[in-house]
Structure formats: C-alpha cells, structure tokens
Amino acid sequence: MGDFVHLHNHSHYSLQDAACTIDSLIDSAVKDNMHALALTDHGVMYGATEFYKKAKKAGIKPWK
Prior knowledge:
Oligomer: single chain
Number of helices: 2
Low-confidence stretches: none
Distance between the termini: 21 Å
Shape: globular
Radius of gyration: 11 Å
Helix content: 25-40%
Order of helices and strands: HEHE
Number of strands: 2
C-alpha cells in the first residue's frame, strides 16, 4: 500500500467532520507504509503546524 496516499482527511480540528487526531492519522500512515498524507480540515488551519511537524518527524511527506 506504499503508493497509496490519503488526500482527503479531516482531524478533530475540523469539528463537524471528524474525530480522529493528528497522531492517529500519522500512526495509521506509518503502519500502512504510506510515504505521504494530506490534511483537509474544513474552514480551519489549527492543525496545520502540528500535522506538518509530526508528519516530518515520522518520515511522511505532509500535504496541506
């Protein structure tokens, strides 16, 4: 599954769209050997910095 990239993900910062955390998104991507991951929260950018830093630390290319 290493070539697959999730390009439509909402974190708990996108209040009405999702309940998953940035950590759980990144942990799942690492577990599935994904090389990149996107964050597409609606109307907010609260998680962008956290997502970027944690993804880079985990060796995943962050897309925002």
